[in-house]
Amino acid sequence: MQQILNFLIKNSYKLLFLLLLGISLTLTIKSHSYHRSQYINSSNAVSGYTYNQINSVKEYFGLRQKNEDLARENARLKEILFNKKDTILEGKIVVPDILSDFKVHQAKVIKNSYSKQENFLTLDRGSLAGLKTDMAVISDKGVVGIIEKTTKNFATVISILHTKNPLNGKIKNSNHFGSLTWDGKNAGYVQLIDVPKLATLKKGDTIVTGAQSYIFPENIPVGKIDRIFIEKATNKFVINVRLFNDMTSLGYVYIIENKKKREKEILEAATEKDPTK
């Protein structure tokens, strides 16, 4: 208490000046409409700026939740689309014909390699979220890879940029198919091999997933034809495909569960072992 009194006595002149200044400003504002309007406008401007900055900070910290909500909603919409007979524009996801065959999950890439010969990704979802081995992984632009292993809360994905992970692919306009592989050289390109010379194709044609896959729905975009070669040993096409995905920058992805995958595998395995063939 004594310190407060000492402070007031020591700064009495300054405090008196500030008090009188405040009284004079108040009287001026109250007695003159111009000064009053200027004061109100200035107060509104200051408070408006302050509220705007506070709101911007709140929105910034809320972006992560908004992104997760949007990804979850996209997963729900993709599930509807994958189970509806329809097609959409080139470069977007093409919808399969079979009703209720597919379930779509959403996850985020938290680790991504793309400079090795055998590249993997890690997702922030696992078996507790319904993810299982051999599920397809895609983004809004196309194929990403296949789930390799899961724990309760995480999953690893074999990237399409993997020299030992061939996928079934086809030329969209001709339906001729081959194997999608990666030569380990450029993260922006994969190769479609074993395509017969009878296939009609040209630079710029779209490459999509084929119907022979147990894992991917048919017609998921992969990329566009960039260059075409003939392999002398097999006399078949080797096609350099520029990926739609930027595999060096992946955020949210979608995991596709084919509910009839196991049934198809069992049937085809039994057919191949049939002794009457």
TrEMBL record:
It comes from Flavobacterium urocaniciphilum. NCBIfam families: PRK13922.9-3. It comes from the Bacteria. GO terms for biological process: regulation of cell shape. GO terms for cellular component: plasma membrane. Belongs to the MreC family. The keyword Ribosomal protein does not apply. It holds the Pfam family MreC. The keyword Cell cycle does not apply. This is Cell shape-determining protein MreC. InterPro entries: Cell/Rod_1, Cell/Rod_MreC_2, MreC, MreC_beta-barrel_core. Residues 109-257 form the Rod shape-determining protein MreC beta-barrel core domain. Keywords: Cell shape.
